[in-house]
Amino acid sequence: MISSGHPRYDADRVSRVGGHAVVVGASMAGLLAGRVLADAFRTVTIIDRDPLPDEAVARPSVPQADHVHVMLEPGRVILEDLFPGYGEELLSSGGLGIDNATDLEYYQRGEFLAEGPNRLPMYCASRPLFERIVRRRLAERDDVTLRAECQFTAYDFDGSASRIEGVRIANSDGCNETLAADVVVDATGRTSRTPAWLERHHYAPPVEEEVTVDLAYSTLVLERPSADRHGVMIVPSPPDTRGGTAIPVEDDRWIVTLFGLHGDHPPTDAAGIERFARRLPTPEIHRLLETHEWVSDDVRQYPFPSSRRRRYEDLHRFPDGLLVIGDAIASFNPIYGQGMSVAALEAIQLHHALADGGLADLASRFFDRVGDVVDTVWRMAVGADFEFADTTGPKPLGTDLLNRYLARVIETAQTDAHVSDRFARVLRLEEPPPTLFAPSVLWRVLAPTEVGRRVR
Ligand SMILES: Cc1cc2nc3c(=O)[nH]c(=O)nc-3n(C[C@H](O)[C@H](O)[C@H](O)COP(=O)(O)OP(=O)(O)OC[C@H]3O[C@@H](n4cnc5c(N)ncnc54)[C@H](O)[C@@H]3O)c2cc1C
Asked: For the FAD-binding domain, which residue ranges apply (predicted)?
C-alpha cells in the first residue's frame, strides 16, 4: 500500500506503556486511535459531543456522513487488521464487497478507464455504517469506554504547560469533569483547537497550508435493484469543473453525489439536480437519476472551500502527552476519497510509534511518521486540484510536470488494461505514485503509437 510500503499492525509488538489514554472525538480517526491505544494503555476513554447510538445514522457533528464515502484500500486492510471479521460484519449488515476493477466505472479526461485484469476488492457502504461497526466493536471491549454527549472544553496541563495531563469536559447534564490521562489524542477534525491552544501557551503553532478548491457536494439517495452492484465515478478534468459519483450501499440504495469545483456548485432542488447531472461530461449518472426512484426527500449539500494541512512534523517544541490525528492534521479534497484511509494509516503509525519507543518522545516520533503518510496523499490530492487554473495555495514542487505525465497515464489507461490496473492501485492508495514510473507503465505511456498499448 501506500499501504504496501508500511508495516502492518502487529499486536505482539506493543507492551503496556501507561494507565489511561483519552481520545477527543469518536469519529473514524478517534475510534481507530482508541483501538491502537488499547494495546498500550490499561484503559482508554473516547469522548464525543454527539450522541453515539448503536444505529448507523449520521451524527450532527459529522455532517459529511450523509455524502458518498469511498473506503480505499488502506482503510479496508487496516480495519480488518484492527477488528478481525470487520468485512464479514459489514457485509452481513448490508454493505457490499465489489470489484473496483469491474464494478466501478471510472471516467476521467473524456473516457472511461479500461477494465483492469485483476480483481481489486472494495467495500461499499454508507459512512454511518462504516463507523457504526468500528464503534460497536470498541464498545464491546472492557478496556475502552465511549462517552457520548461529552463536550471537550480544555486541556488540563502542568504549571508550565510542558505536559498535557488530561482533559476537561462538560457532560450533557451540565456537570464539568476532569479526566486525567497519560496521553490525550485530539481527533476533533478540521476545526481542531490545538493550534490555538499552542499559540496561547507560547508554542509555535503548526504551519498551515491551504489549497482552495471552492467545492460543493449535493447528495441524494436512489433505489437500487439488489442485483445491480455497479458504481460510477466521474472526475472532472479542466475545463469541466463538475463531476459526480453513484456508489451502491446497504438497503438496496445508491448514494449519488454531484459536485462542482470553483463555484460551479450543484443545486439542492430536484429540477436543478437534473439539469446539473445532464451537463456532466458523460450521461451515466443522469440516466440513473431518470430511471430509479428517489428515496431521499431532500438533497443534502456540503461546501468544502479548501484542503488544509497542518505541519505538526516540523514543530521543534510540543507538549508531552498530546497527539493530534485525522482531519485535525490534514483534510483533503473529498472527491479523492482519502480521509478515512489516511486516518487508518495514521492510527497504524501510532501503533508502531508506541511499539518502537513507548511514551518517550512519542509526539515527535508519531508526527514524523504521519508527515510521510500525509505528504504522499497531499501531493496526490492537491496535485490533481492544481490542474484547475483557479486553484490557489502552495503548489508542491514538480506538480505541473507530474500532471502532464499523469494526463498521459490516464489517457493510456482508457485503452490499456495493465496501465488501468496500475493507475487504479495508486488512486486506491494501494501503491505509491512512483509505481507509475515503473518500466512496464512508462513505455506504454510514452509509446508514440498504439503498439505500446496493445502489449500486455
Ligand atoms: C463531503 C465529504 C466527503 C468525504 N468523503 C470521503 C470519502 O469518500 N472517503 C474517505 O475516506 N473520506 C472522506 N471524507 C473525509 C472523512 O469524512 C474524514 O476524513 C473522516 O471522518 C476522519 O475525520 P476525523 O475523524 O479526523 O474527523 P471528523 O470526522 O470531523 O470527526 C471529528 C469528531 O470530533 C468530535 N468533536 C469535535 N469537537 C469536539 C469537542 N469539543 N468535544 C467533543 N467532541 C468533539 C465530533 O463530534 C466528531 O465526532 C469526506 C469528507 C467530506 C467533508
From this structure: 22-355
* CATH architecture under which domain 11-61+70-98+123-209+307-384 falls: 3-Layer(bba) Sandwich (3.50)
Length of the chain: 456
Contact 170, 67 (CB under 8 A): no
Q: Are 364 and 316 within 8 A, CB to CB?
A: no
Q: Please report which helix (H) or strand (E) contains residue 352, including its range.
A: helix 339-357
- Ligand 1 center to residue 200 CA distance, Å? 25
Note whether 71 and 98 are within 8 A (CB).
no
Residue of the CA atom closest to atom 35 of ligand 1: 25
DSSP state of 163: B
Question: Which atom of ligand 1 is least distant from the CA of 150?
Answer: 43
How far is the centre of ligand 1, averaged over its atoms, from the C-alpha of 62 (Å)? 6
Going from the Cα of 220 to the center of ligand 1, the distance in angstroms, rounded, reads 20
Pocket test for ligand 1, best of 48, 214, 265 (most atoms within 8 A of CB): 48
| Cβ 411 vs Cβ 452: under 8 Å | no
| pLDDT digit string, tens, across residues 383-426 | 999 999 999 999 999 999 999 999 999 999 999 999 999 999 99
- Tell me which DSSP letter residue 437 carries: G
Residue 248: the pLDDT is 98
How many Å apart are CA 143 and CA 41, to the nearest integer?
A: 9
pLDDT given for residue 450 in this prediction:
53
Nearest CA to ligand 1 atom 16: 339
Q: Cell 445532464 maps to which residue?
A: 278
- For ligand 1, residues with CB inside 6 Å are 24-30, 47-50, 61-62, 64, 67-70, 151-152, 187-190, 217, 302, 304, 326-328, 334, 337-341, 343
Distances in whole angstroms, Cα of residue 375 to Cα of each of 137, 180, 310, 370, 405: 31, 33, 11, 8, 20
Domain range list for the chain: 11-61+70-98+123-209+307-384, 212-305, 399-454
* Calpha distance 174→153 (Å, rounded): 12
pLDDT digits (tens, 9 = 90+) for 33-59: 999 999 999 999 999 999 999 999 999
Distances (CA, A) of 184 to 31, 165, 328, 434: 13, 8, 14, 36
Ligand 1 center from residue 411 Cα (angstroms): 33
Q: Name which residue leads in pLDDT, 153 or 456.
A: 153
| Beta strand segments in 79-207, E | 96-99, 104-108, 111-112, 121-124, 144-147, 150-157, 164-171, 176-180, 183-186
- Separation of CA 282 from chain center: 26
Cα–Cα distance measured from residue 129 to residue 199, given in angstroms and rounded to the nearest whole number: 37
Contact 284, 211 (CB under 8 A): no
